[in-house]
Amino acid sequence: MSLLESQLGRLRGQTAWITGGKRIGRTVARALAEQGVNIIASFRRSAAEARALVEQCQACGVQSLAVEADVTSRADFERAVEQARKRFPEIHILVSMASVYWPVAWEQISESDWQQNVAVHLLGSFWPAQVLVPYMPAGSHIINVADACVTARMRKRVLPYQVTKAAVAAMTRAMAVELAPRGIFVNAIAPGPVLPPEDFPPERWDAIRAASPLNYAVSDEEAVQQFALLVLYLSLTTGATGHVFPLDMGENLG
User: Fold this and answer.
1) Which CATH number do you get for residue 207?
2) Residue 9: which residues within 8 A CB-CB, separation 6 or more?
3) Count of CB atoms situated within 10 Å of the CB of 111
4) Among 104, 110, 185, 244, whose CB has the most other CB atoms within 10 angstroms?
5) What radius of gyration do the chain's Cα atoms show?
6) Is 233 in contact with 31 (CB distance < 8 Å)?
């Protein structure tokens, strides 16, 4: 058995909770399911997509469940956890991927822009962790999703998004300190352009990708697969906690 096979084999039989299971989350869930990880996918509006994801994971030979949950509400997420624990008493991996994104000019940033970004990115990463930690044994992993603005350059017209994603990176370090005595690992991924937002102009997306000084054309599919591979690593590592791992396709170079 190779080193990679033996390490991935440690995941078999574990249970992962994934918030924000659309788009990139689907690939992450399938990647974990292919390694024998049971999947709980929580959703807020995309019920049909969550159920389709459950079927795809079950086809990998694992147990899977879709539960409705508002990650911005502690009470609602707690209700979802009580429902899920009837089938899955322990959670070993939490991947917090719920996110919102829209461009807004400086002069037009509103209270609502701030409230939604804070609620989804900060509270939406904190409440699931706080509620699930009592059911996570030592050696479990929490994986948050920050943004490449933490390690690379800032972009215009997405100020509330970038500020709250940078706060997720800071919270990851703080959570790692809080949960270290429990033996729980907390890390984050800081992705650059992985997939374009829905209804995003293709020419603008091409320009964003072309802005990297790295002379290598990364396809959307390749970027998503790299993200999923990093999740697999962070679901296994016992050598790092409190770190933010960049996946910026070379944006950090300038």
Assistant:
1) 3.40.50.720
2) 1, 35, 36
3) 7
4) 185
5) 18
6) no
Placement of tokens 């215009």 in the chain: 156
Three-class SS state of 94: strand
Q: pTM of the entire structure?
A: 0.97
- Residue 252 inside a domain? The answer is no
Cα angle: 11, vertex 91, 187; to 5 degrees: 75
Convert 25-40 into a string of H (helix), E (strand) and C (coil): HHHHHHHHHCCCCEEE
Please give the tally of structural domains in the chain.
1
**Token reading at 4:** 């990679």
Q: What's the rounded Cα separation, in Å, for the pair 53 and 30?
A: 8
Q: Is residue 125 part of a domain?
A: yes
Q: Residue with structure tokens 């990880």? A: 37
d(CA 20, CA 44): 8
